[in-house]
Specification:
single chain, 5 strands, alpha/beta, 5-stranded mixed sheet
Length: 248
């Protein structure tokens, strides 16, 4: 059993993390000092049994939280093939929020997600035209994203949009990212890569602005700053900072 922070529903977290593709618990990746999955599980796992205690995420147009889940599959409108998994799913009365969390991944050697022709289907609707245009550029190799995994984010948006539409909810994709100063080894993280990452995030957001799925970039540093302003969350934030160190 991983060493979770105190006051977390460990059994629920383990069940959630275990169902994600790649099973980081079994592979041992979850115990890595650079694990993004461990950070997400410890940060948002606290709210699984107390969703109303989760404050609205900064910049997210949504109301009071009704449900929080880890490792949520957001299926496309067909049965076969692979479907995207979001690290966190948040439901309010008006909105479905999918959180794609990253820690060190953008700064590792490039391993971009590709697109298959199967995504080029007329099922996303006219209000996803900007995401679809970007998907076509990614397929053609004309979109210049070297650090941000833009293809994966487009797939996430399609999955969120499909589920939100079925539930008659608004749809938001939160890209939750860290900007650590150094790797677990102590080696500095490349500042040029971090600057490129920020530029690509901003460009992605500008490209898809106006479509059904609202794209909201959010840094871990900003998220914890906001949580720390809530008295009931201060101990949780302090424990996260001790366990996971600098997040930017």
């Amino acid at each position: 059993m991983p060493n979770f922070l105190p006051d977390l529903p460990e059994a629920r977290i383990v069940e959630a993390v275990s169902r994600m593709p790649g099973n980081e618990l079994r592979s041992g990746k979850f115990d890595s000092a650079e694990s993004s999955a461990a950070l997400v599980a410890n940060a948002f796992g606290w709210f699984l049994d107390r969703p109303a205690a989760l404050p609205p995420l900064p910049g997210v147009p949504a109301g009071a939280v009704e449900a929080v889940d880890l490792a949520v599959e957001m299926r496309f409108p067909w049965s076969g093939g692979r479907h995207p998994w979001l690290d966190v799913g948040i439901v309010t009365h008006t909105t479905l929020v999918g959180v794609a969390a990253r820690r060190y991944e953008p700064f590792r050697p490039a391993k971009q997600t590709g697109f298959a022709d199967v995504y080029d289907r007329p099922v996303w609707g006219p209000n996803m035209a900007r995401y679809t245009a970007l998907a076509l550029e990614l397929i053609a190799g004309t979109a210049d994203f070297r650090v941000l995994d833009a293809a994966q984010l487009v797939k996430h948006s399609y999955g969120i949009r499909t589920r939100a539409q079925k539930r008659a909810l608004g749809a938001v994709l939160v890209y939750l990212y860290a900007e650590p100063e150094q790797w677990a080894s102590g080696k500095p993280v490349d500042r040029a890569l971090q600057a490129r990452h920020r530029e690509e995030i901003a460009r992605f957001g500008k490209t898809v602005a106006g479509d059904d799925v609202v794209f909201v970039p959010l840094s871990w540093g900003d998220l914890l700053w906001h949580w720390d302003r809530v008295p009931a969350l201060r101990a949780h934030v302090a424990a996260l900072r001790v366990r996971f160190g600098d997040l930017g």
